[in-house]
Every structure is written in C-alpha cells, then in structure tokens.
C-alpha cells in the first residue's frame, strides 16, 4: 500500500481523459427507466398513424367542448336577459297597480272637492243675493231719509228684506271629509310598511330552507306531525316501549332539524301564535341532550343562540347572557319568528316575520356584550325550537308550526 501511495505514482494519461457515459448521481426509479426505455424505441408507421388519429380525435373533442362552453356562455346571457325582462314585467304590473290606485285616490279627492265647492257656491250665491237685497234696502232707506217729507211708502222694498239672516245649520257640514282623508293616509302608510316588509321578506325567501324536525332526537313528549313541520306537547306522544336514541333529549323539551347548515345563507320561520312559552334559535350539534342543566338549553351555553318568550316577556339569549330584543318597543309578542343565518359572516338574525321588524341580531360587530370568538361559526348549525314550561305547567296552547316557504 505504501508503494502505491508514493508521490507521482498517479499519472493521468490521455486514455484516462476519454469521456465515458454519464453517471447518474442517484439511481433511476424502475418506472422512469421503463418510460425512458420505451421512449427510446422508435414507433412504427402503424403506431404513428394510430397516434395521429388519437390526436385528431382529441382535437375534435376539445373543439366540441369549447363550442359547448361558448354556447352555454351565450345561453347564460340570454337567460339572464329573459329573467330581467320577466322581473321588469312583474314590477311594471305592481307599478301600474300603484299608479291606477293613485289616480283613483286623486280622482276621488278631486270629486270631493268639486262637490264641496258646488255646495259652497250655492251658499255663496244665497248670501250674495241677501247682500244685494240688503244693499238695495240701504239705498232705498237712505233715499227716504233724504226726502223732506220723510214718509216711506208701504210698497218700499225695505219692508221686504230681513235685517238679520241667520246661517243655515247645514253650512257647517259643507267641507272636505278630513277624517276620511286622514284614514286614507294611515291606510297608505300601513300598506307602504307592509309592502316594504314583503319586499324584504321576498329577499329572504330566496334563501329559504326546508326545515324538518328530527323525530328520533326530539323529546319523547313532543308530538311531530305534518311531515315534520308541526310540533306540540302531548302526553300521548310518549311511548314507554320506545328505545331512546343516544342523541335524544330526555329532560328538556327541545327539538332540532334533520339537516345542518354548513355554508351560505338560510332563512326559515316558526309560527308561535299558538304557544304561550317558547324558544326559537340555532345550535351546534354538540348541544347536550341529557339532563336539564344549562348545557342542554337553548341560549344558555356557547353552543346556541335564541329568542324566547316566557311569562309574556321576550328576551334574546346566548352563552347564558340575555338582553331585551332591540325591535319589540313594547309591541305585542310576535306571531311568527323569522330566522336568517349567514354562516360565513357568523351572523344570526331574528325577525318578527309579520312585519319583518328586527328582534335581535347576534354578531361580533353589533353585539359586543356577547362572546366575540363564538360569532365565527366553527361547526354545523341546526335550527332548533324548545317548549318552555310555565310555572303552572303546559297549557293547551303549546303548538308550533314551521311553514313551508319553498311552495
């Protein structure tokens, strides 16, 4: 070894500088080696022809698909224009109806003015004639006084004119019907509010959800009928032989919908006019189902949001904190509660659906009293309702209905 390692023992000759095959730094994979070997094999005439046919077929398919996409784009524009025209026609019909009604109301007011003016003109004519008679009598009386004799003939006109004409009692009633006009303004104001509410509700109805109550997980004493949209408290609904579902409420009279909300905007309504004590809201599926502590009650935990009516008072709840709903202003309790959820924005809004008046909005921006971090929804949401037990027990008015807004 020492001899081999002596200085000068390594001498590079010209043959050592000959360029050999390239050495790969890492071994190639078998798949790559097979692909390289396959690509190095020259194709036959038949294979080239077949490959050319495949390329032409692919070209034809691609061109056909492009034409289909272009046609869809063109049809999309045409469809939107057709929809715009139909929307315009619907609004034109409403505008025409409003314009016809406006003309009818204005014509009615004009007719009232003309009739009142005609009556006043007749009264003015009578008083004008009386004034003319009085003035003639004044002239005759003045002429008589100017005569030296001062004798007035018995045929003098002054004897034919009353010195005092009393207004007719009917004159006071000759006026525009102000009470009718004020009633008209009140009706128009109510119609305007109703129209604005319906237009607002129309926007929400485009996002209406098909809410059906889950029979398996609702409390056993809640009777569910009408394709899962009608709920009521009934002792007959409790079946002692029925096997309890693991996710069934056993103490709290609560029910959840079958479908969850995971994205987008959704709207539904709950008719509560036949229920004296209730809660309407949304919850995560992780809401506890067993027991009757706060973790199983709507609004009493971080997992749920609701508005509720108890003992005639309306309140909004989340994370066991409550506020008076912002929109009630001393009004009667709502007959129908509308619920709108914007999942991406972490917002749930409750409305009095009859007038689309805001009851309460839960969001990080508008309700800082609530926990902000839980206004970014992190789990699927379920529409939920709860029958509240009054102090004197459930009354006969313990019924809720979920209208089908998609028909």
TrEMBL record:
Residues 45-86, 174-201 form a coiled coil. Residues 191-404 form the B30.2/SPRY domain. Residues 1-28 are annotated as: Disordered. InterPro entries: B30.2/SPRY (IPR001870), B30.2/SPRY_sf (IPR043136), Butyrophylin_SPRY (IPR003879), ConA-like_dom_sf (IPR013320), SPRY_dom (IPR003877), TRIM/RBCC (IPR050143). Keywords: Coiled coil. It holds the Pfam family SPRY. PANTHER family: E3 UBIQUITIN-PROTEIN LIGASE TRIM. This is B30.2/SPRY domain-containing protein. The lineage of its organism: Eukaryota, Metazoa, Chordata, Craniata, Vertebrata.
């Amino acid at each position: 070894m020492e001899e081999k390692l002596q200085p000068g023992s390594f001498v590079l000759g010209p043959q050592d500088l000959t360029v050999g095959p390239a050495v790969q730094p890492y071994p190639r994979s078998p798949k790559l080696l097979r692909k390289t070997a396959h690509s190095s094999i020259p194709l036959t005439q038949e294979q080239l022809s077949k490959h050319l046919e495949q390329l032409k077929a692919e070209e034809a398919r691609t061109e056909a698909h492009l034409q289909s996409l272009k046609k869809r784009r063109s049809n999309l524009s045409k469809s939107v224009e057709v929809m715009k025209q139909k929307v315009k026609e619907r609004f034109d019909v409403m505008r025409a109806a409003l314009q016809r009604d406006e003309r009818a109301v204005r014509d009615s007011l004009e007719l009232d003015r003309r009739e009142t003016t005609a009556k006043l003109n007749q009264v003015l004519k009578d008083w004008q004639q009386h004034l003319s008679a009085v003035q003639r009598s004044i002239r005759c009386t003045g002429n008589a006084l100017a005569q030296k004799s001062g004798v007035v003939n018995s045929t003098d006109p002054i004897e034919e004119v009353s010195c005092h004409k009393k207004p007719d009692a009917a004159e006071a009633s000759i006026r525009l019907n102000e009470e009718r006009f004020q009633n008209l303004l009140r009706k128009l104001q109510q119609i305007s509010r109703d129209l604005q509410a319906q237009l607002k509700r129309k926007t929400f109805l485009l996002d209406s959800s098909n809410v059906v109550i889950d029979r398996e997980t609702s409390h056993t004493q809640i009777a569910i009928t009408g394709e899962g949209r009608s709920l009521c408290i009934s002792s007959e609904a409790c079946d002692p032989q029925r096997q309890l579902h693991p996710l069934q409420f056993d103490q709290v009279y609560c029910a959840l919908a079958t479908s969850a909300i995971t994205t987008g905007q959704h709207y539904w309504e709950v008719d509560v006019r036949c229920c004296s004590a209730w809660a309407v809201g949304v919850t995560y599926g992780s809401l506890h189902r067993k027991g009757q502590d706060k973790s199983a009650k709507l609004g009493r935990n971080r997992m749920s949001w609701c508005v509720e009516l108890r003992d005639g008072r309306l309140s909004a709840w989340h994370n066991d904190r409550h506020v008076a709903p912002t929109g009630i202003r001393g009004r009667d309790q709502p007959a129908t509660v509308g619920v709108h959820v914007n999942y991406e924005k972490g917002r749930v809004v409750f409305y009095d659906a009859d007038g689309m008046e805001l009851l309460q909005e839960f969001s990080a921006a508008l309700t800082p009293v609530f926990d902000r971090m839980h206004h970014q929804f992190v789990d699927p949401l379920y529409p939920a309702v709860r029958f509240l037990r009054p102090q004197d027990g459930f009354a006969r008015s313990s019924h809720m209905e979920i209208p089908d807004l998609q028909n």
